[in-house]
Write a structure and sequence with these properties.
The protein has 717 residues and is α+β, with helices and mostly antiparallel strands. The chain contains 24 helices and 31 strands. β11 and β12 form a beta hairpin. α6 runs antiparallel to α11 and α22 runs parallel beside α23. Its EC number is 2.7.13.3. InterPro entries: CheY-like_superfamily (IPR011006), HATPase_C_sf (IPR036890), HATPase_dom (IPR003594), His_kinase_dom (IPR005467), PAC (IPR001610), PAS (IPR000014), PAS-assoc_C (IPR000700), PAS-like_dom_sf (IPR035965). This is histidine kinase. It catalyses: ATP + protein L-histidine = ADP + protein N-phospho-L-histidine.
Length: 717
């Protein structure tokens, strides 16, 4: 037995008797074994790390609490350790489930210590299994030889004439009790499968006068009902003349051997369900065992390889040794573990993790080798893809224009890309492992630490760091500079990893300040232009009204009309001057002002009633300018013609909205609109001007004369 005294195993098994049995077996195999009954105990013991283990042997069904797969997942999140699952389940889906957690091994309970040990340290366990099987077989053979054979003799009539002590014990008949009885009464045999009587060998010998043997699966039922699996032979007893005088039966109890063979068959069946290839050879490396997994991996059938040298079947390439050097190492040290490349039957290569163990007999003499091989081609391919992906990611990170910095849970730098080197003036090798505070101005450090701690508690994967207000960085030379940052977090083996992406916004900040200054200057210039235009138009309005007061009625009316048109523009410019929006004014702000201002031009006192919708609507200055002149013409027309005979003159303006249309209804309580007046037939300049402006703004206008005459203007908004 090869001892592995420096290997420590944690056995997680809730069945106390079974755990005791497994622990004893493992300790007898040279392992240091610690047993815990639950997944929670295992987690606590492993995480504490007071007693580091080389391997965990994990039962899947652990009763109450965590099961084996959950426990394994939790442990692997804290520590990388080989875990071999132990279960009574052989369902493919359960095996697949464990493979998704770890692929160190899966052992079916009651598979024997051989399979258990093979999964722990590959070939050692199968070596123990074969040694145990051989030991049991040799022990059984020794016991069988020491017991001797049972012998019964009969005369030519098939009556018992002799029973030896071994036969007495097996049949339950003493020589005295059995003497003279029919052989079928003393030697009662049946077929173990059919439970039917088997023809007695004595009868066959007497008929054929030749030696006969019992068929397989024959059971001897003793006098007390005890059953023995036996093998026997019957031979004729002849006299000197060659005449048959009787028959001698020689038989032996093969019950134990039969059971051993059944157990061997059962273990062989279990080995055929192992996912690793298991190959046995004698000391000359000729193959004497080849399981189903070996057939699947290497494409050779068992019957094709038995008796052949393993070197003829599997061409093997070792990294640093020759095959002969490996064999010498195994002969000297007892085992070899490594990765090799082996060819299958079709010539295709397999990446194999191999465990080669020297197989000894019970006298500790070498009798052969056990090869346990695991195909790791897919695993190596996946590892290669991961490494390639990591290389690509590293290149992408290093080529990024933004600084990328990762820190661990203690806020120490674990990644510092090329852009970060340029931004902060540090080389990656001199900043790795240093606290992140080294890159942050001192007056920001507490606030920054608090922000990262709060972010870690939220569970959010990514967010901008603008909540800190102005964020600044600190270069190697002590210069502070403004930065724009976002932070993300992931969990690696249960520990948080934070990544910050930074952008130097020094140039952008300067540019934005300059743009804001220019925009402010532009705004002031525009307001000044509006102010001057308004003042100039106010001067024109004043001149026209002063001139109108010194003229006769006809000229005065013309000047007032012109002054009203200018007034509508003055009101618009005034609203634009005070407006916070760009080149637009709300109708709620504009129309009340323009109505009041235009009516005030005329000496007549007229009440203005407004009904304007509550929802704020912004219209651009160009449209409002045209609408303002239209409203001026309507008000001027009312002031000139409508109120000659009206004691309480009144003007009404109603503005409402319907879908995407805006309606303005204008009316007065004066003399009304003559039937002869229309926009298609009008001698006056005012209505002609209204018609042209309505067409210009792509609106519609009409006169309603029913009940209370009014002008209705329709605009699209």
């Amino acid at each position: 037995m090869t001892l592995i005294a420096d290997k420590s195993i944690l056995l997680v098994e809730d069945e106390a008797i079974l755990a005791l049995y497994e622990k004893n077996q493992l300790e007898q195999g040279g392992y240091k074994v610690t047993h815990v009954p639950s997944g929670e105990n295992a987690i606590q013991l492993v995480i504490k790390d007071d007693n580091p283990f080389d391997l965990i042997l994990m039962d899947i069904d652990l009763g109450k609490g965590l099961d084996g797969t959950e426990t394994a997942t939790h442990i692997l999140n804290h520590r990388e350790i080989p875990i071999v699952f132990l279960s009574s389940h052989t369902e493919r889906e359960i095996v697949k489930k464990t493979e998704s957690i770890t692929s160190y091994g899966y052992v079916v309970k009651n598979s024997g210590f051989t399979v258990l040990d093979a999964s722990i340290k590959m070939a050692f366990k199968l070596f123990e299994a074969n040694e145990l099987t051989k030991s049991k077989k040799e022990h059984l053979e020794t016991v069988l030889h020491s017991i001797g054979d049972g012998v019964i003799a009969t005369d030519r009539d098939g009556k018992v004439i002799r029973i030896n002590p071994v036969a007495e014990k097996l049949t339950g008949w003493s020589h005295e009790d059995g003497f003279g009885r029919e052989i079928n009464e003393v030697f009662n045999i049946i077929n173990v499968k059919t439970r039917q009587k088997v023809e007695n060998p004595v009868e066959i010998v007497l008929k054929t006068n030749s030696v006969v043997a019992l068929a397989n699966h024959t059971v001897l039922i003793a006098k007390n009902g005890t059953e023995f699996q036996i093998s026997d032979s019957g031979s004729p007893i002849k006299d000197l003349n060659g005449d048959t005088k009787g028959v001698v039966l020689v038989f032996r109890d093969i019950t134990a051997e039969y059971n051993v063979q059944s157990q061997i068959a059962k273990q062989a069946n279990m080995l055929d369900n192992v996912l690793d290839a298991v190959i046995g050879t004698d000391f000359t490396q000729k193959i004497n065992y080849w399981n189903k997994a070996a057939e699947k991996i290497f494409l050779w059938k068992a019957e094709e390889v038995y008796g052949k040298n393993i070197l003829e079947i599997l061409k093997t390439k070792y990294d640093t040794f020759s095959h002969q050097q490996v064999i010498e190492k195994v002969n000297l040290e007892g085992s070899f573990i490594g990765e090799v490349v082996q060819e299958a039957k079709d010539g295709s290569a397999r990446n194999i993790e191999i465990n080669l163990v020297l197989l000894n007999d019970e006298s500790d003499l070498p009798i052969g080798y056990i090869f346990v091989a695991r195909d790791i081609s897919d695993r190596l391919k996946a590892l290669k893809q991961i490494l390639e992906s990591e290389a690509k990611l590293t290149q992408i990170i290093d080529s990024a224009m933004d600084a990328i910095i990762s820190i661990d849970n203690s806020k120490k730098i674990v990644l510092f890309n090329g852009a970060a080197e340029k931004m902060f003036g540090y080389e990656s090798k001199e900043i790795m492992g240093k606290p992140l505070d080294q890159l942050i101005p001192e007056n920001f450090r507490k606030q920054h630490d608090k922000h990262i701690d709060q972010f870690g508690k939220t569970g959010v994967s990514r967010r901008a760091m603008g909540a800190l207000g102005q964020i600044s960085g600190l270069r190697f030379n002590g210069e502070e500079f403004p930065i724009e940052a976002s932070i993300s977090q992931i969990s690696v083996n249960g520990e948080a990893l934070y990544t910050v992406i930074l952008r130097d916004v020094s140039v952008r900040t300067i540019s934005e300040s300059r743009i804001q200054r220019l925009l402010h200057e532009k705004e002031n210039i525009l307001k000044e232009i509006h102010h001057r235009v308004k003042n100039n138009m106010s001067s024109l309005f004043t001149l026209l009204t002063l001139q109108a007061k010194s003229q006769d009625n006809s000229v005065q009316t013309i000047l007032y009309e012109a002054a009203g048109r200018i007034k509508s523009m003055i009101v618009l410019y005034d609203k634009l001057y005070h407006s916070e929006t760009d080149n637009s004014v709300s109708i709620q702000d504009y129309f009340p002002s323009i109505c009041t201002e235009i009516v005030s031009i005329f000496p007549k006192n007229v009440e203005v009633k407004l009904d304007i919708l509550q929802d704020t609507i912004e219209l651009n200055a160009k449209l409002l300018s045209s609408v303002g002149i239209i409203l001026n013409e309507l008000i001027t027309n009312s002031m000139k013609h409508a109120f000659a005979e009206t004691s309480m003159p009144e003007i009404q303006l109603r503005i409402f909205k319907s879908q995407n249309l805006l309606f303005l209804e204008y009316s007065d309580n004066g003399a009304g609109i003559p039937e002869s007046i229309s926009f298609q037939n009008t001698p006056g300049f005012g209505l002609q001007l209204i018609g042209m402006l309505v067409e210009q703004i792509e609106g519609k206008i009409h006169i309603e004369r029913n009940n209370f005459p009014k002008f209705v203007l329709e605009l699209k908004i």
